Amino acid sequence: MAEENFMRRISVEKVTVNMGIGNAPEEYKKAQQIIEKITGCKAKQTLCKVRQPKWDIRPGLPIGLKVTMRGGSAIDFLKRALIAKENQLKKSSFDNHGCFGFGIKEYIDLPGTKYEPALGIRGFDVLVTLKRPGFRVKNRKIMNAKIGKKHLILKEDAVSFLKGLFGVEII
Fold first, then answer.
1. CA proximity to 38, closest of 104, 87, 98, 100
2. pLDDT at 1
3. Is 47 helix (H, G, I), strand (E, B) or coil?
4. What gap in Å lies between CA 168 and CA 162, rounded to an integer?
5. What is the model's pLDDT at position 133?
6. By three-state DSSP, how is residue 16 classified?
7. Tell me: the pLDDT tens digits for 26-51?
8. Is residue 57, in this structure, part of any structural domain at all?
């Protein structure tokens, strides 16, 4: 049998959890407590970049929160989030570069999370970025370069990675 090429192995680079709050300063603290409770990490606020008078938002206004996780904590959270989605994802959740994302309507759907009436019910998005060894060349400071076409992660590669590692069913 031929051995698998080490450079073709796919792994999880990062898991980003986003929660939009809009222009509601009173909801910001509640949302921050929820996102820090479910991820176990400190949340960073996201700022508005465009003006939308209909929604009463302007550049520089905090409109959301995000947490970026890497390593073991990212994989543990991803397992919990996939259980909340009943280990099923749509084919349309994947982009052409192998990354994928999905939403969870209520944070209490995560296993091991209890409802707190003072915080209310909020949903969030989970975005997963995949990588292969050698992807560092596109981000390094000196002599950065493009990833070769044969080394890119395709949609089919990401689907087979998820099926193999997490047992996810694609519908």
1. 104
2. 52
3. strand
4. 6
5. 94
6. strand
7. 888 999 999 999 999 999 999 989 99
8. yes
Instruction: Break the chain down into helix, strand, coil percent, rounded to 5.
Output: 35, 25, 40
Structure tokens at 12: 């999880």
> C-alpha angle 122/18/36, rounded to 5°?
70
């397992």: which residue's tokens? 79
Q: How many residues does the chain have?
A: 171
Q: How many domains does the chain have?
A: 1
How many C-beta neighbours within 10 Å does residue 84 have?
A: 19
Q: Within the chain, what is the greatest distance between any pair of CA atoms?
A: 62
Structural domain includes residue 1:
no
Helices and strands: H and E segment counts in the chain: 3, 7
**60-80 per-position pLDDT tens digit:** 888 899 999 999 999 999 999
Domain annotation covers residue 85:
yes
Say what the pTM is.
0.89
Q: Element (H or E) spanning 67, and its range? A: strand 62-69
Tokens of 15: 């898991």
| 3 state SS for 74-140 | HHHHHHHHHHHCCCEECHHHECCCCCEEEEECCHHHCCCCCCCCCCCCCCEEEEEEEECCCHHHHCC
Residue 115 belongs to a domain with what CATH number? 3.30.1440.10
